[in-house]
């Protein structure tokens, strides 16, 4: 059978293009899971709205929900 070579070149190319083509008001969708400290996890496909694309990394607006049963209890 043919041997399949797996690499992540396409993902790196997509990441590179996304870094240079983002504008304010654009909707972007991550393709890998990201953590925002202990605050949240951003899953692939989450709709993020760019609010400031002027810096090295865009500042985005995340509107979401909290999954039932994932509440943090504090004593």
Helical stretch tally: 1
Query: What's the main sheet like?
Result: 3 strands, antiparallel
Rg value: 17 Å
Number of strands: 5
Distance between the termini: 59 Å
Low-confidence stretches: none
**Strand fraction:** 15-25%
H/E series: HEEEEE
Strand order of the largest sheet: 1-4-5
Mean pLDDT: 82
Briefly note the structural class of the backbone: alpha+beta
The proportion of residues forming helix, as a percent range, comes to 10-25%
* Backbone shape: flat
Note down, in words, how this protein is organized.
This protein is of the alpha+beta class. The protein has a domain of 45 residues. It is built from one helix and five strands, in the order αβββββ. A three-stranded antiparallel sheet has the order 1-4-5, with no helix packed on it. The protein is flat. The model has no long low-confidence stretch (mean pLDDT 82). It comes from human gut metagenome. This is Cytochrome c-type protein TorY.
């Amino acid at each position: 059978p043919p041997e399949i070579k797996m690499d992540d070149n396409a993902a790196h190319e997509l990441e590179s293009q996304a870094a240079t083509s983002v504008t304010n008001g654009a909707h972007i969708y991550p393709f890998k899971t990201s953590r925002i400290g202990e605050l949240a996890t951003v899953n692939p496909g989450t709709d993020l709205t760019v609010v400031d694309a002027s810096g090295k990394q865009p500042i985005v607006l995340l509107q979401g929900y909290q999954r039932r049963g994932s509440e943090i209890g504090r004593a």
